[in-house]
Structures are given as structure tokens and as C-alpha cells.
Amino acid sequence: MSDEKSKWINRLLVLIALTMASVYLFPLYWMFVTSLKTGSEVFATPPALWPEIAQWVNYQDVWQSKNMARYMGNSLFIATGVMLITCLLGTGCAYVLARYRNFWIDVGLFLILMLQVLPASLMVTPLFVGFNQLGLLDYPRIAVILAFSAKTMPFFIVLVRATFMSVPYELEEAALVDGNSRVGAFLFIVLPLARNGILVCAILIFMQAFGEFVYAKSMIQDAQLQPASVGLNTFMGPNTVEWNRIMAYSMMYVLPILGIFILLQRRIVAGLTSGALK
Amino acid sequence: MGNIFKSFTATVLLSSSIIAANAMAEDVTITIWSLDSDVQPAQVFAKEFSELDNGIKVNYRRIQFDDVVSESMRAFATGKSPDIIAVDNPEHALFSSRGAFLDITDKVAASSAINADNYFKGPLNSVSWEGKLYGVPKATNTIALYYNKDLFKKAGIAKAPGTWDELLSAARTLNDPSNNVYGLAFSAKASEEGTFQFLPWAQMAGGSYKNINQPGVVKALDVWKTLLDEKLASPDTLTRGQWDSTGTFNAGNAAMVISGPWELNRMIDEAKFDWGVSLLPVPKKGAQRSSAMGDFNYAIFSNSKHPDAAFKALEYFAAQDHRLFPEFGQLPARSDITIPETGIALKDAALKVFLEQLKYAQARGPHPQWPKISKAIQDAIQTALTGGATPKAALDLAATKIAAVIK
Amino acid sequence: MRALLASLRDGRGFDISLISITMTFLLLFCGVPLIYNAIMSFQEVDIFNLNTFIRPWVGFDNYRALFADATTLPIFYNTLVFVFFSIAGQFLVGFALALFFSLKFSGSTYLRGLFLVSWVMPGLVVGAIWNWILSGDFGILNHVLKYIGVISDNIFWRSDIHFSLWAVIIANIWLGTAFNMILLSVGLAAIPNDIYEAAQLDGANAIQRFRTITLPMMRATIGAVVSLGLIFTLQQFDLFAAITSGGPANSSNVAQYRAWEMSFKEYDFARGATISVLMIGVVMIASIIYVRSTKQEIRG
User: Fold this and answer.
1) Residue A2, pLDDT score
2) Closest CA to C183 of C215, C131, C220, C235
3) Mean pLDDT highest for which of B153-157, C39-43, C288-292?
4) Contact state of C50 with B78 under an 8 Å Cβ cutoff
5) Do residue B309 and residue B169 come from a single domain?
6) Please, are residues C220 and C293 in contact by the beta-carbon 8 Å criterion?
7) Which of residues 210 through 239 in chain C touch B, CB cutoff 8 A?
8) C126-150 pLDDT, tens per residue?
9) Distance of CA B110 to the CA centre of its chain
10) CATH code for the domain of B316
């Protein structure tokens, strides 16, 4: 293949990728444009691709009137908690599930997925009743962290288990022969090798938890402790659907995660596709 | 140095005196849940009441319309309920019939701030159960017909439609697909909003939730079906709430809209045309009028630890009822309050119509199983409008379901 | 005692303790609610006796009542359509993108990252945006389709019984593509390049290589993706709430949304629970797919 030809193919591929990306990202753009419109402009037919006068004031308005800083802080707290618990509890389990291959492992894998039958909206009532009896509802953010960690766990375990699968078994065996205990071999040999994959999964879990809504809405009654998703929901009353401000709020809500994401995305993709899993 | 020392002692003295004052007053904290935002009455009044120097502090939580019942019932079942809740009026009986709300009949009788006789019949009916009072109406509202006067003039229609036939023919004339204008906007959503909008039509035709399949009601659903079949109203009427429907009217994409007084402030801000409000059209000239009765009630939970403090809060709220319209654009549920003119011509004219319409407002229920009754009605509306069954068959099915519920 | 400690540090005990802590956690926070729901489906429940386990026992009455209801079967049918087409769509789009980006052109990792955006968006926000895009009169999707001449009249995505379920499926495909693409990319990257090169030398064309190398090597990944996708799809709730609320006339209603409606709209918790128990069947299939697919894995 000549250099000239491969250059053109490369350009063509980039062009196709850009086109697909712009189609795929359109909802995000639409969110942005809607956030800059006035209340009635939102309902105009045909819809405008850009507002007559961009209403940047929507952002300032929403940030202040909705106490967004506080909401975001709580989201951060919950997301961090969920991420930590999921990693702490999920990693070891994933390691064991990857290490063996027998009937009981199959049962374990089966159960982990099976337990996810119920959508959060149906889990919340039993959990609420149970947490109330345990007194956990006095620490509502912790309650949400525990409940949501149980929801994110299977995803984490499935992915991290795959990561462990790619760590050659011989390395662990060699460590054991060298006199390491199982704990030592796990902590100092296997874990470092799987580090990238675990980190990436942790970030993905963090992002999911940042948007958690159903549990937080029911379990956290004190507005001081509610995350941004619940704050967003306060816009959506029967007589108060202010789409432009909802979208402005949403923009500010997703921007930080989007920011982290854009900064880290190369590592996320690389971590998942090459580093960890070969 | 001396200054620092002085200010230090001052601080100590000050803070110890605050502690002493607190200890003496022994503040009671009550919790209030309502859907009002920080610029709406419940939250504003709660804040004011909390700041009064009466030893009662208020902890306010805002909950969403859809969550009011499930959240508060769950809280009640687990002993975590608030002291005061604002609940939508058709759902009041669900709680009072089960003893979840406090019977405040005696407290009201002894109160100088709340007088049951001052309230409109419909709202008062919704807080009553078997002759006892289980709450106080928070505000009231109803629905009427808004119309775009500019579009009416252009189409050569002299006045707002008074009957269903006139409504249909006006909608046909005003309907202008090439300019993205629908004749009418309303909400037939499969939620309480759909029931809220449909029941007035049923009642005007002589029906009610107890006989939802009688011929007049079938006729009403026929009219709705015609509106949708001929695309005189947007097909999204089926999935859109009242607020979004009215948004299309404000943007000039619908010539008429059926909605309530909660829209007045927004419409004055956003509508760039001349508009008016008219009573809901009736089946035929001279037929009885009817409308929906909306809005919330306050109630005290029966397991409240501070029922007296909670009742004081209700008394304070009731004493602010005269501020509801001037400050918040809401209608007090009371006949003894005359609403002052706002000086905004459009708003004052509209208000007159709404007050007139309010005279015909009927409460939904009260019935402890209202959500199920309402769901049967919503299902009938949706099946008929999407062509799943004829209006008659759909309403017959609803009647059977409702009969099973009310027995 | 010492043997126990030694085993914890250095033997089976280590494995068992790692796995049992997590399993206890999951059983407590997922298993117990599940059992609670299963029990409720045999009881008469209203919200006032939510806090106790002792409630009137009604046997299979809730199940009978559910199947006597004419709306139930169409709702289960909708659920199958929703799950099948969502997964098929997510998977095909995700796989196509993963293959495309495995071509390694300049900036391919960076551009691939952009497709992960739907993962970071909270469900509530995604629902709100799609509600807005799919709206009939002022939705941008109709506007675009009309502009490029695909349709001449607006499609009422949310309100036309023929389209409402598809409206949610479209949004769900968008939402799930990121997850499918990234997992499948991982699987693709794990296939050693020399296998392809050897096949190319043997004269296999691209399609043959895909069928004889890529697909078989990807079995484990595909199993994981499909089974996780199945579970995510079956739990999809936000999109229904935001776009169609299951309407009109239940045309886009699915089991998980109906179960919520029963519980929190009609306050019939027992029947809500009954539906969720029936959903166990579907998740069981997902779990079996996953467990079977792990048998295809090749240890690194």
C-alpha cells in the first residue's frame, strides 16, 4: 500500500468517525442549545438550532437559586463512597471468581447477576423499611451508598473478573513458589498487574453513582444532604416544567464528570483495551 | 490584647445567654412536607412561621407531586412521617379514612384563625371524612378556556365558544397546520391530570365517576376523540401534561387551551398576543356547568409528636390566605376573602372568569380508593383516543372497574 | 484456631472469605429485598402494613388477578420487544463502532472516547433530553427527518401507539451503545494480531476472518455484554418515566414500569411485587447466558 493511499484512507476514516460522533453527540448539543433559550422559544415550531439571544443568565440563575454547589458536593460524596465500597468489596470477589473454574464458581456468578432482578424503583421500598429498622436512615447518604453499591457490584465484578483473567496464572504460581502467602501474592503480584483495569472500572462506577437518583430521592429527606439528581428533579413539578432551566442545570451537572472524562478518556479506553486486558 | 479579651468575654456571654434562652424556650421543631418551591406559599409561610419568636421551628422538605403519596405513606408506615403534609385533594380521603391524618374537628372549633364555614364547599368536602375534619384546604383552582384573541379576530370568530359544538367548529376554523397552529390544546395524559381535565366534561353532561358510562359522558369522549382524530389538537395531547400544553399556546402554536389560573403569571410574561379566558363550553346551550377542583390541602399526621405546634402552623398559614393571590397567583379556598385587583387588565379579567368558574367546581371523590378510580378513567380515555375501543366500550369497561372498587 | 488463621492467609479460607464478604453484602442489600418482594406477591399489602411481615396471606390470588387483567399480556409482550430490540440495536451499533475504531487511524482512541459520553450522563438527564428530541410538534428529530425528506408528516413518537415503544427503544439504544462498544473493544483488543496475520497469509478474506477468528474468540466477551445488557435493559426505568410514561394506552408499557405503576400509582404493592417476581424468569436467562459464556474464556 502506497503512503499516499494510506494517508487518504486515514483521512476518510477520521471523517467518518467525526460524522458518526456528531450524530451520536447531538443529544448533548441539543441539551446545550435548549439551555440557552427562553421559556417560549423552547416550544417554538420549527425548533431553532441556535437561540435568538443566548440566555446565559439561565446558568447563573439556576446555579444560585438551586444551591447547586451543595447538591454537587453531596453527589461527589455519594459517588466517592459508592466507588470505594464497590472496589473494596468487588475486587477480591472478582479475583476469586477468575481464579477457579468449578461448579461453585458458576453458582457464584449466577447469583451475582440473579440478584439484580429488581429495578431500583422496586428495591427501594424493602430497603427503606429495612434501613429504618437498622437505624441507617439517620445517616441517609451512607444508606444510599450501601444500597447503590449493591447495584453497581455485578457490573464491576464482571469487568474486573475479566481483567484478572488476563493476568497470567504462572506469575502468581511463581510468587507462591518463592514463599509468598496467598495474601502476599494477591496484594503484591496480581493486584498491581490488574491495577489499570480496576482503576478504570472504578471511574466508570463513580460516573454511574454521580447520577444516582431513585435511592437518593426516597432515602434522603433532608435537602441539605440531597445529591444533584434530586435537585434536578425539583424542577419537574406538574406545573413547573422549565425545560430551558432543566437543561441548564443538566449541563452544569454533567460538565464536571464530562470534564474528568475528557481528561481521562484516553486512559480509560487504553486501560480497558490494552493495558489491563492485554 | 484588652480588646480581644473584651470581645472574647462578650462572645462567651452572648453565646451563653443564647443557650440560656434556648433552654428556657425549649424549641419544638416540626416538619412540613410540600411540593412548593421557595417562591411558593407553603415554603414561604413555613419560613416566616419558623422565624416567629414562638418557640416553634420548622424543618421544610420539598417533595415532588408524583412522590407525595408514596413518600408520605412509606414514612407513615415506618414512623418517620412529617408533622404536616400538603396533599392533593383527591388523595386526602385515602389517608383520613385510614386514620393516618389527625382529626382536627375540635381544634378547628376552638380556633379563632380557622373557621370551617369560610371555606368553599368543594375544598371543604375533600378534607372531610364521615363528618369529621382531617385537614385545611391550602388553596383552590379550577380550569377554564384560554383563547388567543388575535387568532380569533383573524379567523373572524366574534366570541369564545360556549358549547361543545361551537368549540369544535372554532377549533376547525382556527386549525392551521401550515402555520403550525392547532385549534385547541389540553391534556389527556394517563395521569391524574387526564382525569382532572376529563371529569368536568363528564359532569357537565350529567355523569360522574359513579356513572362514567352514561350517554352524556360517551358524547364527551366522542368530542375528545374528534379533536384528536381531526388533528384539531396535537397527538401529543395524549402524553403531555397541562403545563407543556399551555406552553404551546403561549408560543402561539395553539389557538385555545384548557388550563388553570396557575398559568396566569407565565402567560403574562410570555404570550406575545392578546388573550382572554372564558368558561368551559357546555354540552348545549343552558346545560349545567361544571369544572374541576384542584389544588392541595394541609393535614397533620396522626402520629405527630407535636400536634398543637403543628396546628399553630396551620393557623398561621390560614391567616395568610389573603396573600395567596397577590403574591403567588393562587386562589384561596375561602368565600370570605375578596381578591384585590392587580392592576394588570388581562389578569384581572381572567381572574373574574376563574372565580365564576370556581362556583361550579366539583371535588374528585372523596374516596379512599381514588387512585384506582382515576386510573380506570385514564385507561378509558387513552384506549378510546388511540382507537383501541369505541368511547362507549372503553367507558363501559371503566364503569365495571370502578364499580368493583366502590362496591 | 491456628489452622483457621493459616487457611485465611494461605489457603481456601482466603478465597472463601474474599467471596463471602461480598456475597453477604449482596444478599443483604439485594437478596433480602428480593425475598421481601417475593413474599409480598402472596400477601395482601397496602402501604399501611408495609412495615411488618405479617400480612393476610392470599396464595396465588395476586397472580390470578394479574393474568385476568387484559393489559398484562400485551405488557409482557412489549417487554420482550423492548429487551430484544434494545439489545440487538445496542449490540450491533456497539460492535460496528468497536470494529471501526479497531482500524487504528489517527485520533481513533480519542474519537472512540467521545462515544462513551452516554455512560456519564445521569438517566434522568438522558430521559429529559430524549423526551424533548422526540416530541411531535417541536421535536428536532421530526424536523431533521422532514428536512432530509424521510418523512412528510410529523411522527408523534411519544403519542402514536405504533411508535411509542420504539421511541424508548431508540433512546435506550443510544444510552447502551457506549457500554457495548467499550466492552467489545476490550474483547477485540485481546485477540492476538498474529492470528489474523496467519489467516491473511492463508488467503482468508475479511469476512472469513471475522467469522472464523473474531466471533469465536469473542464469545466470552459477547456473553458478558449481552447478559449485562439484558439486565440493564430490564431495569431501564428513567427513560419510560421521562418519555412516554408507558403510554399512550399502555402501548409502551413494560413489566418493570408497570410494576412501579402498580406500587406507587395505584398503591397495590402486592401486584407490583407479583410482576417483579415474574421478571425473575428473564433475568435467569441472562444469568445462564453469562455463566455459559464464561466457559469460553481463555486464561491469560
Assistant:
1) 64
2) C220
3) B153-157
4) yes
5) no
6) yes
7) none
8) 888 888 888 887 788 888 888 888 8
9) 28
10) 3.40.190.10
- B342 is a domain residue: no
Residue A33's CB is within 10 A of a number of other CB atoms, namely: 18
Write the single-letter amino acid at A68.
Answer: M
Size of interface A-C (CB pairs under 8 A): 292
Q: Give the C-alpha separation, C58 to C264, whole Å.
A: 21
Sequence-ordered alpha helix ranges (H) in chain C: 2-10, 12-26, 32-40, 61-68, 72-101, 108-114, 117-120, 123-133, 140-147, 164-189, 193-201, 206-209, 215-217, 219-235, 238-243, 255-264, 269-294
CB A272 within 8 A of CB C185: yes
Q: Return contacts of B131-135, CB within 8 angstroms, 24+ apart.
A: B132/B96, B132/B103, B132/B105, B133/B103, B133/B104, B133/B105, B133/B108, B134/B92, B134/B95, B134/B96, B134/B101, B134/B102, B134/B103, B134/B104, B134/B299, B135/B87, B135/B92, B135/B96, B135/B101, B135/B104, B135/B297, B135/B298, B135/B299, B135/B300
In order of start, what are the domains of chain C with their CATH numbers? 61-294 (1.10.3720.10)
Peptide bond into B366 cis (omega under 30): yes
Write down the ipTM of this complex: 0.84
CA-to-CA distance for B339 and C293, rounded, in angstroms? 71
- Examine the domain organization and report whether B303 and B273 are in the same domain: no
Gap between the Cα atoms of A247 and B363, Å rounded: 36
B43 in a structural domain: yes
* Residue B10 domain flag: no
Range of the domain at B167: 144-292+348-406
**CB-closest option in A42, A65, A236 to B64:** A236
Residues B185 and B278 in one domain: yes
Mutation target for B interface from A40, A71, A243: give the one with most B CBs within 10 A.
Answer: A40
Instruction: Say whether B64 and A65 touch across the interface (CB within 8 A).
Output: no
Provide the pLDDT for residue B17: 45
Choose between B356 and C104: higher pLDDT: B356
Which tens digits make up the pLDDT trace of B341-390? 888 899 999 999 999 999 898 888 888 889 889 999 999 999 999 998 99
B286 vs chain C: nearest CA distance in angstroms?
Answer: 34
Nearest-CA distance A144 → chain B (Å): 16
Of B35, B74, B248, the CB nearest to A43: B248
Closest CB to B382 among C136, C160, C249: C249
Contacts of B238 in chain C (CB under 8 A): 159, 247-248
Residues B126 and B59 in one domain: yes
Spatial contact of B79 and B46, defined as CB atoms under 8 Å apart? no
In the stretch 184-243 of chain C, residues with CB closer than 8 A to chain A read 185-186, 188-190, 220-221, 224, 227-228, 231, 234-238
Taking residues C248-260, what's their average pLDDT? 89
Residue that is last in its domain, among B337, B363, B398: B337
Q: Does residue B286 share a domain with residue B183?
A: yes
Put simply, the answer to whether C247 touches B190 (Cβ < 8 Å) is yes
Min Cα distance A41 → chain B (Å) is: 7
Instruction: Check whether residue B72 and residue B195 sit in a common domain.
Output: no
Q: Using CB atoms, which residue from C50, C114, C272 is nearest to A21?
A: C114
Domains annotated for chain A, with CATH where assigned, are 60-275 (1.10.3720.10)
Q: In this structure, are residues A41 and B247 in contact, taking their beta carbons and an 8 Å threshold?
A: no
Q: Are residues B262 and B117 in the same domain?
A: no
Q: Which residues of A touch B244 (CB under 8 A)?
A: 43, 241
Only one residue has cell 429485598, namely: C33
Q: Do A40 and B270 touch (CB under 8 A)?
A: yes
State the Cα–Cα distance between residues C51 and C53, nearest whole angstrom. 7
In the predicted model, what is the mean pLDDT of residues B135-164? 94
How many domains does chain B divide into?
A: 2
Residues B261 and B303 in one domain: no
